[in-house]
Protein backbone atom coordinates (compact mmCIF):
# COMPACT_ATOMS: atom_id res chain seq x y z
CA UNK A 1 0.00 0.00 0.00
CA UNK A 2 1.03 3.64 -0.27
CA UNK A 3 2.43 5.65 2.60
CA UNK A 4 -0.18 6.51 5.24
CA UNK A 5 0.23 10.21 4.36
CA UNK A 6 -1.31 9.48 0.95
CA UNK A 7 -4.49 8.11 2.52
CA UNK A 8 -4.65 10.90 5.11
CA UNK A 9 -4.31 13.51 2.36
CA UNK A 10 -6.97 11.83 0.24
CA UNK A 11 -9.48 11.60 3.09
CA UNK A 12 -8.89 15.23 4.07
CA UNK A 13 -9.57 16.31 0.50
CA UNK A 14 -12.68 14.12 0.40
CA UNK A 15 -13.97 15.74 3.61
CA UNK A 16 -13.37 19.18 2.11
CA UNK A 17 -15.22 18.29 -1.11
CA UNK A 18 -18.20 16.55 0.51
CA UNK A 19 -18.52 19.20 3.20
CA UNK A 20 -20.86 17.61 5.73
CA UNK A 21 -22.47 14.46 7.05
CA UNK A 22 -21.12 10.94 7.58
CA UNK A 23 -19.40 9.09 4.73
CA UNK A 24 -19.71 5.30 4.91
CA UNK A 25 -17.43 3.46 2.46
CA UNK A 26 -18.11 -0.25 2.31
CA UNK A 27 -15.22 -2.57 1.57
CA UNK A 28 -16.05 -5.82 -0.19
CA UNK A 29 -16.73 -9.15 1.44
CA UNK A 30 -15.59 -12.51 0.15
CA UNK A 31 -17.88 -13.62 -2.63
CA UNK A 32 -18.82 -17.30 -2.24
CA UNK A 33 -18.51 -19.55 -5.29
CA UNK A 34 -20.12 -22.76 -4.06
CA UNK A 35 -20.29 -22.47 -0.28
CA UNK A 36 -19.72 -19.57 2.13
CA UNK A 37 -16.04 -20.22 2.88
CA UNK A 38 -15.05 -20.96 -0.72
CA UNK A 39 -14.67 -17.45 -2.01
CA UNK A 40 -13.86 -16.58 -5.59
CA UNK A 41 -10.12 -16.17 -5.66
CA UNK A 42 -8.39 -13.77 -5.53
CA UNK A 43 -10.35 -11.45 -3.25
CA UNK A 44 -11.07 -8.09 -4.91
CA UNK A 45 -11.44 -5.07 -2.66
CA UNK A 46 -13.75 -2.20 -3.63
CA UNK A 47 -11.73 0.42 -5.52
CA UNK A 48 -13.00 3.51 -3.66
CA UNK A 49 -12.41 1.79 -0.32
CA UNK A 50 -8.88 1.01 -1.52
CA UNK A 51 -8.35 4.59 -2.62
CA UNK A 52 -9.17 6.05 0.81
CA UNK A 53 -8.43 3.21 3.23
CA UNK A 54 -5.85 1.08 1.35
CA UNK A 55 -6.53 -2.19 3.16
CA UNK A 56 -7.09 -5.39 1.20
CA UNK A 57 -8.95 -7.46 3.83
CA UNK A 58 -12.58 -8.46 3.41
CA UNK A 59 -15.25 -7.34 5.89
CA UNK A 60 -14.10 -3.75 6.46
CA UNK A 61 -16.06 -0.49 6.40
CA UNK A 62 -14.52 2.98 6.50
CA UNK A 63 -16.47 5.73 8.27
CA UNK A 64 -15.57 9.40 7.88
CA UNK A 65 -17.55 11.77 10.10
CA UNK A 66 -17.08 15.03 8.22
CA UNK A 67 -18.83 17.25 10.80
CA UNK A 68 -16.79 15.99 13.75
CA UNK A 69 -13.60 15.28 11.75
CA UNK A 70 -13.24 11.69 12.98
CA UNK A 71 -12.37 8.57 11.05
CA UNK A 72 -13.02 4.96 12.03
CA UNK A 73 -12.06 1.67 10.43
CA UNK A 74 -14.77 -0.85 11.21
CA UNK A 75 -14.25 -4.60 11.12
CA UNK A 76 -14.18 -7.70 13.29
CA UNK A 77 -10.89 -9.26 14.33
CA UNK A 78 -10.63 -12.93 13.48
CA UNK A 79 -10.86 -15.50 16.29
CA UNK A 80 -8.63 -18.43 17.23
CA UNK A 81 -10.53 -20.91 15.02
CA UNK A 82 -9.87 -18.77 11.97
CA UNK A 83 -6.23 -18.42 12.98
CA UNK A 84 -5.94 -22.22 13.09
CA UNK A 85 -7.11 -22.49 9.48
CA UNK A 86 -5.83 -19.31 7.88
CA UNK A 87 -2.99 -18.09 10.10
CA UNK A 88 -2.82 -14.82 12.00
CA UNK A 89 -3.79 -11.64 10.25
CA UNK A 90 -3.30 -8.01 11.10
CA UNK A 91 -5.71 -6.63 13.72
CA UNK A 92 -8.25 -4.04 12.64
CA UNK A 93 -6.69 -1.42 14.93
CA UNK A 94 -3.29 -2.05 13.33
CA UNK A 95 -4.78 -1.80 9.87
CA UNK A 96 -6.36 1.51 10.89
CA UNK A 97 -3.08 2.98 12.10
CA UNK A 98 -1.26 1.78 8.95
CA UNK A 99 -3.43 4.12 6.91
CA UNK A 100 -3.49 6.94 9.46
CA UNK A 101 -6.99 6.29 10.83
CA UNK A 102 -7.28 7.12 14.55
CA UNK A 103 -10.15 4.83 15.53
CA UNK A 104 -11.22 1.25 14.94
CA UNK A 105 -14.34 -0.57 16.04
CA UNK A 106 -16.13 -3.92 15.63
CA UNK A 107 -18.82 -4.27 13.00
CA UNK A 108 -21.70 -4.12 15.50
CA UNK A 109 -20.75 -0.50 16.21
CA UNK A 110 -21.62 0.48 12.65
CA UNK A 111 -25.29 0.04 13.58
CA UNK A 112 -24.89 2.53 16.45
CA UNK A 113 -23.05 5.02 14.25
CA UNK A 114 -25.79 4.87 11.62
CA UNK A 115 -28.62 5.00 14.19
CA UNK A 116 -27.10 8.04 15.90
CA UNK A 117 -26.66 9.82 12.58
CA UNK A 118 -30.22 8.99 11.48
CA UNK A 119 -31.68 10.20 14.80
CA UNK A 120 -29.78 13.46 14.51
CA UNK A 121 -31.11 13.81 10.92
CA UNK A 122 -27.57 13.92 9.61
CA UNK A 123 -26.78 13.05 6.05
CA UNK A 124 -25.26 9.60 5.50
CA UNK A 125 -23.30 9.43 2.23
CA UNK A 126 -22.90 6.03 0.60
CA UNK A 127 -22.00 4.88 -2.91
CA UNK A 128 -24.34 2.94 -5.22
CA UNK A 129 -23.73 -0.68 -4.17
CA UNK A 130 -23.06 -3.37 -6.78
CA UNK A 131 -22.83 -6.47 -4.58
CA UNK A 132 -25.92 -8.03 -3.06
CA UNK A 133 -24.45 -8.58 0.41
CA UNK A 134 -23.66 -4.86 0.67
CA UNK A 135 -27.20 -4.06 -0.51
CA UNK A 136 -28.55 -6.16 2.36
CA UNK A 137 -26.17 -4.48 4.79
CA UNK A 138 -27.37 -1.03 3.68
CA UNK A 139 -30.98 -2.22 4.00
CA UNK A 140 -30.31 -3.36 7.57
CA UNK A 141 -28.42 -0.21 8.53
CA UNK A 142 -30.47 2.49 6.81
CA UNK A 143 -33.78 0.83 6.00
CA UNK A 144 -33.44 1.64 2.28
CA UNK A 145 -34.73 -1.12 0.03
CA UNK A 146 -32.11 -2.42 -2.45
CA UNK A 147 -34.26 -1.15 -5.36
CA UNK A 148 -34.00 2.40 -4.02
CA UNK A 149 -30.33 2.37 -3.08
CA UNK A 150 -28.93 3.53 -6.39
CA UNK A 151 -31.06 6.68 -6.38
CA UNK A 152 -30.45 7.23 -2.64
CA UNK A 153 -26.69 7.07 -3.07
CA UNK A 154 -24.91 10.37 -2.50
CA UNK A 155 -24.28 12.33 -5.71
CA UNK A 156 -22.05 14.68 -3.70
CA UNK A 157 -19.88 11.75 -2.69
CA UNK A 158 -19.82 10.37 -6.25
CA UNK A 159 -18.81 13.76 -7.66
CA UNK A 160 -16.07 14.24 -5.07
CA UNK A 161 -14.60 10.79 -5.69
CA UNK A 162 -14.78 11.16 -9.49
CA UNK A 163 -13.00 14.49 -9.18
CA UNK A 164 -10.22 12.95 -7.12
CA UNK A 165 -9.78 9.57 -8.81
CA UNK A 166 -9.84 10.98 -12.36
CA UNK A 167 -6.47 12.64 -11.95
CA UNK A 168 -3.63 10.23 -11.30
CA UNK A 169 -0.68 11.45 -9.29
CA UNK A 170 2.94 10.36 -9.66
CA UNK A 171 2.73 7.37 -7.33
CA UNK A 172 -0.40 6.10 -9.05
CA UNK A 173 1.24 6.45 -12.47
CA UNK A 174 4.11 4.33 -11.18
CA UNK A 175 1.62 1.61 -10.26
CA UNK A 176 -0.05 1.86 -13.68
CA UNK A 177 3.39 1.45 -15.27
CA UNK A 178 3.89 -1.71 -13.19
CA UNK A 179 0.58 -3.09 -14.39
CA UNK A 180 1.65 -2.30 -17.97
CA UNK A 181 4.79 -4.42 -17.55
CA UNK A 182 2.59 -7.42 -16.70
CA UNK A 183 0.23 -6.51 -19.55
CA UNK A 184 3.16 -6.53 -21.96
CA UNK A 185 4.12 -10.04 -20.82
CA UNK A 186 0.52 -11.22 -21.19
CA UNK A 187 0.22 -9.96 -24.76
CA UNK A 188 3.61 -11.09 -25.96
CA UNK A 189 2.85 -14.52 -24.48
CA UNK A 190 -0.26 -14.68 -26.66
CA UNK A 191 1.76 -13.58 -29.70
CA UNK A 192 4.29 -16.33 -29.07
CA UNK A 193 1.65 -19.04 -28.76
CA UNK A 194 -0.64 -18.13 -31.63
CA UNK A 195 -0.52 -20.71 -34.42
CA UNK A 196 -3.00 -22.92 -36.23
CA UNK A 197 -4.40 -25.77 -34.14
CA UNK A 198 -4.12 -24.20 -30.67
CA UNK A 199 -7.43 -23.46 -28.93
CA UNK A 200 -8.57 -19.97 -27.94
CA UNK A 201 -9.09 -21.13 -24.37
CA UNK A 202 -5.54 -22.48 -24.11
CA UNK A 203 -4.04 -19.14 -25.08
CA UNK A 204 -6.43 -17.17 -22.84
CA UNK A 205 -5.50 -19.49 -19.94
CA UNK A 206 -1.79 -18.91 -20.50
CA UNK A 207 -2.39 -15.14 -20.69
CA UNK A 208 -4.36 -15.20 -17.41
CA UNK A 209 -1.63 -17.34 -15.83
CA UNK A 210 0.94 -14.61 -16.51
CA UNK A 211 -1.14 -12.14 -14.48
CA UNK A 212 -1.57 -14.62 -11.64
CA UNK A 213 2.10 -15.56 -11.61
CA UNK A 214 3.01 -11.96 -10.81
CA UNK A 215 0.77 -12.06 -7.76
CA UNK A 216 -1.89 -10.02 -9.47
CA UNK A 217 -5.03 -10.77 -11.41
CA UNK A 218 -6.61 -9.91 -14.74
CA UNK A 219 -8.23 -6.48 -14.86
CA UNK A 220 -11.26 -7.99 -16.67
CA UNK A 221 -12.09 -11.39 -18.18
CA UNK A 222 -9.65 -11.95 -21.04
CA UNK A 223 -11.03 -11.67 -24.55
CA UNK A 224 -9.21 -13.97 -26.93
CA UNK A 225 -11.09 -14.89 -30.04
CA UNK A 226 -11.05 -15.38 -33.78
CA UNK A 227 -14.41 -13.62 -33.74
CA UNK A 228 -13.04 -10.16 -33.06
CA UNK A 229 -16.33 -8.77 -34.34
CA UNK A 230 -17.98 -9.97 -31.12
CA UNK A 231 -16.88 -7.06 -28.94
CA UNK A 232 -16.74 -8.95 -25.67
CA UNK A 233 -16.31 -12.42 -27.14
CA UNK A 234 -15.17 -15.04 -24.67
CA UNK A 235 -12.51 -17.61 -25.59
CA UNK A 236 -13.92 -20.85 -26.96
CA UNK A 237 -12.53 -24.35 -27.39
CA UNK A 238 -12.28 -23.73 -31.14
CA UNK A 239 -8.87 -24.21 -32.71
CA UNK A 240 -7.11 -21.30 -34.39
CA UNK A 241 -7.32 -21.52 -38.17
CA UNK A 242 -4.80 -20.38 -40.75
CA UNK A 243 -6.01 -17.30 -42.60
CA UNK A 244 -7.94 -15.91 -39.64
CA UNK A 245 -7.18 -13.07 -37.27
CA UNK A 246 -7.01 -13.55 -33.50
CA UNK A 247 -7.96 -10.65 -31.26
CA UNK A 248 -6.55 -10.45 -27.74
CA UNK A 249 -7.97 -7.83 -25.36
CA UNK A 250 -6.46 -8.37 -21.94
CA UNK A 251 -4.94 -6.58 -19.00
CA UNK A 252 -3.49 -7.03 -15.55
CA UNK A 253 -4.11 -5.49 -12.19
CA UNK A 254 -0.91 -5.12 -10.27
CA UNK A 255 -0.63 -5.84 -6.55
CA UNK A 256 -2.13 -2.43 -5.79
CA UNK A 257 -5.05 -3.08 -8.17
CA UNK A 258 -3.99 -0.52 -10.76
CA UNK A 259 -4.90 -1.75 -14.23
CA UNK A 260 -3.63 -2.20 -17.75
CA UNK A 261 -5.84 -2.72 -20.79
CA UNK A 262 -4.46 -3.45 -24.26
CA UNK A 263 -5.74 -5.06 -27.42
CA UNK A 264 -3.75 -6.59 -30.23
CA UNK A 265 -4.99 -8.33 -33.34
CA UNK A 266 -2.69 -10.79 -35.05
CA UNK A 267 -2.78 -13.16 -38.01
CA UNK A 268 -2.99 -16.81 -36.91
CA UNK A 269 -0.24 -17.75 -39.42
CA UNK A 270 2.00 -14.85 -38.39
CA UNK A 271 1.56 -13.11 -41.77
CA UNK A 272 -1.26 -10.68 -42.62
CA UNK A 273 -3.08 -11.17 -45.91
CA UNK A 274 -3.44 -8.16 -48.21
CA UNK A 275 -7.14 -7.83 -47.32
CA UNK A 276 -6.35 -7.94 -43.59
CA UNK A 277 -3.57 -5.38 -43.99
CA UNK A 278 -5.91 -2.94 -45.73
CA UNK A 279 -8.29 -2.90 -42.78
CA UNK A 280 -5.56 -3.21 -40.15
CA UNK A 281 -3.69 -0.16 -41.44
CA UNK A 282 -6.85 1.95 -41.10
CA UNK A 283 -7.19 0.98 -37.44
CA UNK A 284 -3.47 1.57 -36.93
CA UNK A 285 -3.73 5.07 -38.47
CA UNK A 286 -6.77 5.90 -36.30
CA UNK A 287 -4.99 4.67 -33.16
CA UNK A 288 -1.92 6.82 -33.91
CA UNK A 289 -4.03 9.82 -34.87
CA UNK A 290 -5.84 9.78 -31.50
CA UNK A 291 -2.46 9.75 -29.80
CA UNK A 292 -1.39 12.73 -31.88
CA UNK A 293 -4.35 14.94 -30.98
CA UNK A 294 -5.01 13.96 -27.34
CA UNK A 295 -3.96 16.73 -24.97
CA UNK A 296 -5.33 18.76 -22.06
CA UNK A 297 -8.39 20.77 -23.01
CA UNK A 298 -9.41 18.57 -25.95
CA UNK A 299 -12.82 16.91 -25.62
CA UNK A 300 -12.51 13.15 -25.96
CA UNK A 301 -15.87 13.23 -27.72
CA UNK A 302 -14.33 15.42 -30.45
CA UNK A 303 -11.31 13.15 -30.70
CA UNK A 304 -13.66 10.19 -31.09
CA UNK A 305 -15.49 11.96 -33.93
CA UNK A 306 -12.22 13.02 -35.60
CA UNK A 307 -11.16 9.37 -35.58
CA UNK A 308 -14.56 8.35 -37.02
CA UNK A 309 -14.14 10.84 -39.87
CA UNK A 310 -10.63 9.59 -40.63
CA UNK A 311 -11.90 6.01 -40.58
CA UNK A 312 -14.76 6.95 -42.92
CA UNK A 313 -12.36 8.60 -45.38
CA UNK A 314 -10.21 5.50 -45.47
CA UNK A 315 -13.17 3.13 -45.76
CA UNK A 316 -14.39 5.20 -48.71
CA UNK A 317 -11.03 4.60 -50.43
CA UNK A 318 -11.64 0.87 -50.01
CA UNK A 319 -15.15 1.21 -51.41
CA UNK A 320 -16.86 0.08 -48.22
CA UNK A 321 -18.31 3.53 -47.53
CA UNK A 322 -19.37 6.36 -49.82
CA UNK A 323 -20.85 9.86 -49.79
CA UNK A 324 -19.90 12.93 -47.79
CA UNK A 325 -17.71 12.08 -44.80
CA UNK A 326 -19.18 14.71 -42.45
CA UNK A 327 -22.74 13.67 -43.27
CA UNK A 328 -21.89 9.98 -42.94
CA UNK A 329 -20.47 10.46 -39.45
CA UNK A 330 -23.36 12.73 -38.46
CA UNK A 331 -25.78 9.99 -39.56
CA UNK A 332 -23.79 7.41 -37.56
CA UNK A 333 -22.91 5.31 -40.62
CA UNK A 334 -19.39 4.66 -39.29
CA UNK A 335 -20.96 2.74 -36.38
CA UNK A 336 -21.44 -0.15 -38.82
CA UNK A 337 -17.69 -0.61 -38.37
CA UNK A 338 -16.98 1.11 -35.03
CA UNK A 339 -20.02 0.67 -32.77
CA UNK A 340 -18.18 1.71 -29.58
CA UNK A 341 -16.32 4.72 -28.26
CA UNK A 342 -12.66 5.51 -28.69
CA UNK A 343 -11.85 4.78 -25.07
CA UNK A 344 -12.52 5.07 -21.36
CA UNK A 345 -10.87 6.23 -18.16
CA UNK A 346 -8.60 3.69 -16.48
CA UNK A 347 -7.15 3.47 -12.99
CA UNK A 348 -8.10 1.25 -10.07
CA UNK A 349 -10.85 -0.13 -12.30
CA UNK A 350 -10.25 -1.01 -15.90
CA UNK A 351 -13.31 1.09 -16.81
CA UNK A 352 -12.53 3.48 -14.05
CA UNK A 353 -15.36 4.13 -11.57
CA UNK A 354 -17.83 2.30 -13.82
CA UNK A 355 -19.90 1.56 -10.71
CA UNK A 356 -20.85 5.27 -10.58
CA UNK A 357 -22.22 5.09 -14.17
CA UNK A 358 -20.04 6.32 -17.00
CA UNK A 359 -22.27 9.37 -17.49
CA UNK A 360 -20.92 10.64 -14.13
CA UNK A 361 -17.32 9.72 -14.94
CA UNK A 362 -16.68 10.23 -18.65
CA UNK A 363 -18.96 13.24 -19.12
CA UNK A 364 -19.76 16.51 -17.38
CA UNK A 365 -22.35 19.28 -17.74
CA UNK A 366 -20.56 20.63 -20.80
CA UNK A 367 -20.08 17.39 -22.68
CA UNK A 368 -23.13 15.36 -21.65
CA UNK A 369 -24.31 14.37 -25.14
CA UNK A 370 -27.63 13.19 -26.45
CA UNK A 371 -26.75 9.54 -26.48
CA UNK A 372 -29.49 8.12 -28.67
CA UNK A 373 -27.61 7.25 -31.85
CA UNK A 374 -26.43 3.65 -32.23
CA UNK A 375 -22.69 3.53 -31.51
CA UNK A 376 -22.52 6.99 -29.94
CA UNK A 377 -24.96 5.82 -27.26
CA UNK A 378 -22.35 3.61 -25.62
CA UNK A 379 -19.49 6.11 -25.43
CA UNK A 380 -17.76 5.90 -22.07
CA UNK A 381 -15.67 9.04 -22.29
CA UNK A 382 -16.41 12.42 -23.83
CA UNK A 383 -15.23 15.11 -21.45
CA UNK A 384 -12.25 17.42 -21.78
CA UNK A 385 -8.94 15.79 -21.04
CA UNK A 386 -6.83 17.06 -18.15
CA UNK A 387 -3.24 16.48 -17.19
CA UNK A 388 -3.05 13.27 -15.17
CA UNK A 389 -6.05 11.59 -16.80
CA UNK A 390 -5.43 8.07 -18.03
CA UNK A 391 -7.59 6.94 -20.93
CA UNK A 392 -7.55 4.14 -23.44
CA UNK A 393 -7.12 4.70 -27.17
CA UNK A 394 -8.89 1.77 -28.78
CA UNK A 395 -10.32 2.19 -32.25
CA UNK A 396 -11.55 -0.90 -34.06
CA UNK A 397 -13.16 -2.04 -37.29
CA UNK A 398 -15.58 -4.93 -37.10
CA UNK A 399 -17.68 -6.78 -39.65
CA UNK A 400 -20.72 -7.96 -37.73
CA UNK A 401 -22.82 -10.16 -40.04
CA UNK A 402 -26.07 -9.64 -38.11
CA UNK A 403 -25.60 -5.85 -38.19
CA UNK A 404 -24.85 -5.89 -41.92
CA UNK A 405 -28.04 -7.90 -42.51
CA UNK A 406 -30.14 -5.64 -40.32
CA UNK A 407 -29.01 -2.33 -41.83
CA UNK A 408 -29.19 -3.76 -45.34
CA UNK A 409 -32.77 -4.93 -44.78
CA UNK A 410 -33.89 -1.62 -43.29
CA UNK A 411 -31.82 0.52 -45.66
CA UNK A 412 -30.28 2.32 -42.68
CA UNK A 413 -27.48 4.66 -43.86
CA UNK A 414 -27.64 3.09 -47.31
CA UNK A 415 -26.41 6.33 -48.90
CA UNK A 416 -23.11 5.92 -47.05
CA UNK A 417 -22.55 2.15 -47.10
CA UNK A 418 -21.72 -0.24 -49.90
CA UNK A 419 -23.69 -3.30 -48.83
CA UNK A 420 -22.57 -5.42 -51.80
CA UNK A 421 -18.96 -5.01 -50.77
CA UNK A 422 -19.83 -5.47 -47.08
CA UNK A 423 -21.33 -8.87 -47.95
CA UNK A 424 -17.88 -10.07 -48.99
CA UNK A 425 -16.41 -9.17 -45.57
CA UNK A 426 -18.85 -11.19 -43.47
CA UNK A 427 -16.14 -13.76 -42.70
CA UNK A 428 -13.49 -11.16 -41.85
CA UNK A 429 -13.92 -10.85 -38.08
CA UNK A 430 -12.71 -7.69 -36.36
CA UNK A 431 -9.63 -5.67 -35.54
CA UNK A 432 -8.94 -3.50 -32.51
CA UNK A 433 -5.70 -1.90 -31.36
CA UNK A 434 -5.71 -0.55 -27.82
CA UNK A 435 -3.18 1.23 -25.66
CA UNK A 436 -3.35 3.21 -22.45
CA UNK A 437 -2.34 6.84 -22.56
CA UNK A 438 -1.46 9.36 -19.89
CA UNK A 439 -2.41 12.95 -20.57
CA UNK A 440 0.64 15.10 -19.92
CA UNK A 441 1.08 18.86 -19.61
CA UNK A 442 0.99 19.49 -23.35
CA UNK A 443 0.07 16.19 -24.97
CA UNK A 444 0.04 12.54 -24.01
CA UNK A 445 2.20 9.45 -23.87
CA UNK A 446 1.78 5.71 -23.78
CA UNK A 447 1.84 3.95 -20.45
CA UNK A 448 4.30 1.06 -20.53
CA UNK A 449 7.93 1.52 -21.41
CA UNK A 450 7.92 -1.47 -23.75
CA UNK A 451 5.14 -1.08 -26.23
CA UNK A 452 3.46 -4.30 -27.31
CA UNK A 453 4.18 -4.57 -31.07
CA UNK A 454 1.32 -3.28 -33.21
CA UNK A 455 2.73 -1.96 -36.46
CA UNK A 456 2.14 -4.83 -38.93
CA UNK A 457 5.85 -5.33 -39.68
CA UNK A 458 6.62 -5.42 -35.94
CA UNK A 459 3.83 -7.90 -35.26
CA UNK A 460 5.01 -10.19 -38.07
CA UNK A 461 8.65 -9.90 -37.01
CA UNK A 462 7.82 -10.66 -33.38
CA UNK A 463 5.72 -13.68 -34.32
CA UNK A 464 8.45 -14.98 -36.60
CA UNK A 465 11.28 -14.54 -34.13
CA UNK A 466 9.59 -15.74 -30.93
MN1 LIG B 1 -10.48 -0.96 -22.99
Describe it.
With 466 residues, the protein is an alpha+beta fold. It has helices spanning 4-18, 47-53, 80-86, 92-98, 108-119, 132-142, 146-152, 155-166, 170-193, 200-213, 274-293, 300-317, 325-331, 358-361, 401-410, 419-423, 456-465, and strands spanning 22-26, 61-65, 70-74, 103-105, 124-125, 217-218, 223-225, 245-250, 252-253, 262-267, 390-393, 396-398, 430-432, 435-439, 444-446. The protein starts with a helix and ends with a helix. The model has no long low-confidence stretch (mean pLDDT 96). The chain folds into two domains: 4-166, Creatine Amidinohydrolase, Chain A, domain 1, CATH 3.40.350; 170-465, Creatine Amidinohydrolase (Alpha-Beta Complex), CATH 3.90.230. Strands 4-3-2-1-5 form a five-stranded mixed beta sheet, sandwiched between helices. A three-stranded antiparallel beta sheet has the order 7-8-10, with helices on one face. A three-stranded antiparallel beta sheet has the order 11-14-15, with helices on one face. It binds manganese (II) ion. Manganese (II) ion binds at residues 261, 344, 392, 394, 434. One of its GO terms (biological process) is proteolysis.
